[in-house]
Amino acid sequence: MMRSPLAIFALFLLAGCVRLIPESTPPIAAPAPVPGTGVPGPETTSAMLAGVRAGPRIASERFGRAELVFSDADAEAALRSFIESCPTLTTREDRTGLTKPSDWQEACDKATENPGTADTFFMSYFETAVIGDGEAFATGYFEPEIAGSRFYREGYVPVYTLPDDLVRGWPEGTPASERTGRAPLGRIDENGNHVPYFERAEIEEGALDGRVPVIAYAADPVEFFFLQIQGSGRIRTESGEIIRIGYDGQNGRGYTGIGGVMRDRGLLGDGPGQYAGSMQGIMAYIRENPEEGRELMRLNKSWIFFRELEGDGPLGSIGVPVRRESSVAVDPRFVPYGAPVFLDLDRDVADGLWIAQDTGGAIKGANRFDTFWGAGEEAREIAGGMSGRGQAYILLPRGTVNRLNAEQ
């Protein structure tokens, strides 16, 4: 399949990165329907409202006697991620309305006992369900790695932890009628008033120097800017140390996708003097036009704060590591966290079993997915070119679809 040159560009238009929206954020109604994406209208805010029907039978490539077939290796990788997700499945309320924690207990028990082969495990304990029309749209994300240092160096950018003075509150004079929902993020100024927190330009100019702990320092401001958009990543120091960092908060300022700004200004495209509509094209413009590039990045006033992560992978929204070619970001209103998902797309590399372990600001709708591809250049290439359409099937404990139909 040909790679879409606009796939990674869409990341910066949509902020399709998985940790930019904290899990505590209230549900947001999906936008108007987009043909072929499975994204429901504003009134459809759960899987039950979108509609649920039985999907095809499951088999593995060793049996091959069903409509939905996956490989042994695919099943083994998915099983490992499923086991890591079981503490969430068996204890956390399912926002989709499809299942209860107890529904998953048998499969989770068997997964950690002796499930036999991974493919027969999924065949034995699950059935497929189609949410809405089942028409999937999938993008990709990865864990970027950039150069840096544990210690301050001239020209390096500090990677800040979450500031103590970042608090929620209502600005002075906000009418009581407007004090609905969660109060905005900001800080308390010297006069005791709640004001907006420092924006990107102010932070870059030193507003937090000496006030907020620093995890490390990024060597390249441009690379760090895109790592912030991604929401997590790795910093490799000159000594070879790998520092893994993950999203821990945001300054409360609005996100602006600079790809959209560049497109509106006529900077991206195929014409003379234009740059490719890709992450590489955007970065090329910024590097070749440093002053304009810096001001362009500063249009995105949002700043991401990080925490240092332990373990062997970046953490998804349910607190377990996301794994290459096994973890997928979903809208938890439509796919239960921890549930297996089977994708059958026009991008064959993404076909197969995935486990719902993450979410993101642009991942909204019944059949909207963001596939995780790990770290490194290959991961960057695959994720950057991932823009697949096809069918999605959610794997639920056996008997779920009949129970749901009986309850209607």
Task: Record the SSE blueprint.
Layout: H1 7-14, H2 47-50, E1 52-54, E2 58-60, E3 68-70, H3 72-89, H4 105-112, H5 118-125, E4 126-131, E5 135-143, E6 145-149, E7 157-160, E8 167-168, E9 185-188, E10 194-195, H6 200-204, E11 214-218, H7 221-230, E12 232-237, E13 242-250, H8 258-264, H9 279-288, H10 290-298, E14 304-308, E15 327-329, E16 340-345, E17 352-358, E18 368-375, H11 377-384, E19 387-397, H12 400-407
Q: What are its keywords?
A:
Barwin-like endoglucanases, alpha+beta, 6-stranded mixed β-barrel, 12 helices, single chain, Ribosomal Protein L25, Chain P, 6-stranded mixed beta sheet, disordered N terminus, 408 residues, 19 strands, 2 domains
Describe the 3D structure.
This protein has about 400 residues and is α+β, with helices and mostly antiparallel strands. The chain has 2 domains: about 220 residues, Beta Barrel (Barwin-like endoglucanases); about 160 residues, Ribosomal Protein L25, Chain P, CATH 2.40.240. A 6-stranded mixed barrel has the order 5-18-15-17-16-19. Helix 3 packs across helix 4, helix 3 packs across helix 5 and helix 9 crosses helix 10. The longest helix has 18 residues. The N terminus is likely disordered.
Please report the total strand number as a whole number.
Answer: 19
The tally of helices reads: 12
Query: Which secondary-structure class do the elements indicate?
Result: alpha+beta
Strand content: 15-25%
Question: How would you concisely characterize the structure shown here?
Answer:
The protein has 408 residues and is of the alpha+beta class.
